[in-house]
Amino acid sequence: MEIDIRLTPERRWEVCVHEAAHAVIHSLGGAWAYQIAVAPTGVSSWTFTGRKGSTSTDLWGAYQGADLPLGVFACIEWDGAYFEADKNAYRRYVARDVADARSARQARLIREEHHRQLRAYIANLFAGPLTAQILDGEHFRPGLQPHDCSPDDDVQKAWGLACLLPGAQGVELEHIETQTMAALQRADVWGAVQDLARQLEHDGVVDDFDGFLLEPVTGWPFSPRSKGRELPVTIPRR
After folding, report:
1. Which end of the chain is more exposed for a tag (fewer CB within 10 A), N or C?
2. Model confidence, pTM
3. Which one, of 155, 151, 152, 149, lies nearest residue 132 by Cα?
């Protein structure tokens, strides 16, 4: 028997917070958001059409922000159960940019920026699922698990992309997840998430983010080797 599940106001608010967190955390890492959307209250199904014309179903909300270059996504492949990563292909991809460096220092900075952008994208993937722990008042313990065995699952994508980073996958994942939760638990960051979520709850779609997103923080998310680095005391909005 097919069960008719409809979007309640309470669940819709949770979705609004989830999508807002994607946008706010991604902005902290230097990316820009294009659109967030949430299904209307009471619907049992919803279709979202993205800015490039693709459609998605079986979801209650959507976030569209700056993507990683296609060359990075080409380094991971869904095998039906999880993403397999080709770390050597990623190294070759980064090496093409490093080849233009005029000094060893510039080469190192280019390489580090590639890794930082990848960590920022993973932080954005973690941000939505982590809001559930905050809203439920749960004690934070790193180790988010996938919700679905699907290539569209945020945590599945994070796991696959983390395999491309220079550190061990588990170390990279825990470090990024911990930094993301620490950011979300700050009053200024969580306030930005709440404000954007309220706007989304009211409008259903948000594509004007003036005053909602955060100024990027240099170097964030920090590498596991960057001991003692923290976010600044205050983070202004854009």
Report:
1. N
2. 0.95
3. 155
